[in-house]
Hints:
three-stranded antiparallel beta sheet, single-stranded DNA endodeoxyribonuclease activity, single chain, double-stranded DNA binding, RNaseH_sf
Amino acid sequence: MTTEIGHNLNIDQSIVLRHLRKLGMVNKLDVWVPHELNEKNLMDRISACDSLLKRHQNESFLKRMITGDEKWIVYNNINRKRSWSKRSEAAQTIAKAGLHPKKIMLSIWWDWKGIVYYELLPNKMIDSTKYCS
């Protein structure tokens, strides 16, 4: 970024960097805007975790569990960037990909040792037929 500013102003990048630092600016990586849980979601998760831990104390079952998940993998992945801002200011935010990007579904299953099975499903979602097969 300082290279681009230096090029536009026809000065060396090191001069741009020096002036930005004198102004109290620091180079920060932009952050994703998080999805927040509401109070009920948070309490439900705590309750479920507490219940599972109590059950595991009576009957060791966690090593027999297989867990699965699905994840959309976007082909055109938007990268976060660095930007200059004052030390006391928060990093800039960057929007996530649009609603209809080209993507592929990853279906993955694992146990306590690692991945048991995975499948890439182009242009598909997990429905009851696929889930049961």
